[in-house]
Amino acid sequence: MFPRRDAFLRRCIFHYIEFPDPGLMRRIIAVHHPHLDAKLLDQVLIKFYWLREQNELRKKPSTSELIDWISALLRSGVSMEKIESHIPFLGSLLKKEQDVDALQRYSKQGGRYPNKWTDLGPRYNQ
């Protein structure tokens, strides 16, 4: 990517849009997956927000990647037990190879993925 010159930046308007909280994210997902099982929705959101909190990731997953990940999970028929204990199709959420590698190392070292909102700490307690 090319550095932006000051003259260009002076002509730009920047607008910050806050990342959706879990409540708004549920409504966004409902537009794309209106009949999604509530338990599955909870699990994907818990994993998604946990991933976004990981400082080691170079590119945090976005809303569009979450929606695509849900599609992959639904099409694959992966079990709820696997979703609760792992993050299937991690490449759907993480676009950088080194991010996928970091999560795979975490898993191999016995790292535990969250499966309850309380695992994410007080910020996400529902």
Structural key phrases:
126 residues, mainly alpha, 0% strand
Structure description:
- By secondary structure, the protein is mostly helical.
- It has one domain (18-119).
- Helix content is 53%, strand content 0%.
- It has helices spanning 6-10, 22-32, 38-52, 63-76, 80-85, 90-93, 97-108.
- The longest helix is centred in the middle third of the chain and has 15 residues, at 38-52.
User: What integer is the average pLDDT?
Assistant: 91
Question: What count of helical segments does DSSP give?
Answer: 7
Specify the biggest β-sheet: none
Low-confidence stretches: none
Strand/helix succession = HHHHHHH
The structure class reads: mainly alpha
Radius of gyration: 17 Å
Q: How many strand elements?
A: 0
Q: What's the N-to-C terminus distance?
A: 40 Å
Task: Summarize the SSE layout with pairings.
Elements: H1 6-10, H2 22-32, H3 38-52, H4 63-76, H5 80-85, H6 90-93, H7 97-108
What can be said about this structure in brief?
The chain is mainly α.
